[in-house]
Amino acid sequence: MxxxxxxxxxxxxxxxxxxxxxxxxxxxxGSDGVSRVSDVFHVLMSVAMLAMPWAxxxxxxxxxxxxxxxxxxxxxxxxxxLGSTRYGGHAHHGPGGSGRLVLGYHVVMMAAMVVMGxxxxxxxxxxxxxxxxxxxxxxxxxxxASWSGWTSISWILVVVxxxxxxxxxxxxxxxxxxxxxPLARLDGVLLLxxxxxxxxxxxxxx
Length: 206
Description:
By secondary structure, this protein is mainly α. 68% of the residues lie in helices and 5% in strands. A hairpin with a 4-residue loop joins strand 1 and strand 2 (143-147).
């Protein structure tokens, strides 16, 4: 992915905050196994996203590894979504608890990471790589791969995550007068930041 320097820095700062927040959640006392696994996936997602705009990002989060990890994460959240009463949830995740709608959103978010990994695969092959229907350009610091279909997919994901950001903001505002554990409110903020970052990250670049 190739972004402007300003957006690259913004994404890195934003996802550094979410990585630190979910890392804290992962090690907090009393967290159950499902919650801890969920938090680890959020940390891995944040690390992949903070590295994504930079040339060294391919080394830190190779596309193939990203696809595998987040495919597992997608399956993890899908199982929770379909069998939340049987397998439990992560009660501290966001205002309003861990309902199926929130869990379903996590499925979408992790699946989007798989899509991003697939989009980045040609870049990992180097500037000399040539594929039908793809345009490869490299500047030494960034590389951009384009396929006619990716632009539409990217914009769809921008809209999805922008809508999710508004939804998360609405949930936070609505929960302002509800008695909640501070960590639940913090997680709501982190998920809001993550949603906004995903919307920005998927904006197609030239």
